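Sequence only, no structure available. Ideas?
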Amino acid sequence: MKKIMILGAALLFAGFAQAQSPQVGVKAGVNFAKFAGDPDPESEFNTGLAAGLFVNIPLSSAFSFEPAAEYSQKGAEFTTALNSEVKSKITYIDIPLVAKYNVTPAFGLFAGPQVSFFLDQETKLVNGNSTTTFEGSNDSYRKSLAGGKVGLSYNFGSVMLNASYATDFQNLYTDESGNSDLKNQVINVGLALGFK
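Reply:
I predicted one. C-alpha cells follow.
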C-alpha cells in the first residue's frame, strides 16, 4: 500500500509540473455497495452517500490525471446461516488516483488505484423483532485498504455524469479478527461540477 501511495504522490507532482490548466471540482452521488469474498455472503446492495473533491490535471489533449478525496458509505445487507439479518454500513475516505482518457471531448474513461481509510461503521443484527446495533470504531476492521477503480464520464460543459466500479484488493477485516475474507465492491453513479 505504501508503494501505491508513493507512486500516486509521484504522479501527482509530475502532473502539477506539466499541467496546463488544472480544474478543481466537487462531486456527489450514490453508492450501491456489497461484499464479495470467501465464503461468498451472497449479500444484497446497500445504498449510501458519496461526496468529495477532485482535481483534473491535463497531461496532454487526450490524457489527464485526476486525484480525488471522497467521503464514501459502503457496506452490505445479508442473511447469516442462522437466519439473522445483517445490515452493515461502513464509512471511508477514499483517495482514488485515476488516469483519464478522453475518447472524445465529452466522453472519457478512467482507471487507477485507490486507497480507502476507515472512518466509522454501524452494524445492525436483526433477529425477528429484536435489533442489536454495533457502532463506532472497531478494531476488527482494517484502518486502510488498497483497491482499484474504473469508470466512465460524460461532460455537459462544466457538469459531468460519472459511473464507476471500485473494489478492494484486501480483506476489510484485520487478520487477527478471525472474520471471513470479505472485500467491499461499489458501483457509484453521480455528478461532478468543475471550476476553472
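The domain at 2-195 is CATH 2.40.160.20 (Porin).
Hope that gets you unstuck.
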